[in-house]
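Shipment paperwork, digital attachment
Item: protein structure file
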Amino acid sequence: MQTEKMPEEIAVVLTRVIWGAMILGQVAFLVTAWAIRGAAAPVAILGVLVTVGMALVTAAVPGAFLLRHVLLRARPVSVGRYRMGHVLPLAALEAPSLLAVVALLIGANALPVLLIPAVAIAAQVAMFPTAAPFSAAGKDYFRVGER
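Attachment content:
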């Protein structure tokens, strides 16, 4: 099904599935890394990975919200723009989270490293896809009986 010909209700549901899958994948990878990680290893690259992860999440959180705002502020919002306005910010927040999990697998100390995916996942949860961008175009999908 082509994106532009997709009904708005289906676009919202599919975007929610993508949203959930991206968050679930990060949580599953984090839990797996936590379960199989070894003792903290004095690897020189770990400090660099943690510093880069902190810098990435510090830049990605406001950047992702700004990107989402810019992509979804135009009215009416097309289905393709709606999906892009949700998936791109989620992907931007996924990168520092996965980098931190890799650092955890290599052997970094758990506490500073776990802050990175916690902040990234919390920001992703705050970006739950709603039908609000379509509602401003004259449709409200949350009213019962008016479809």
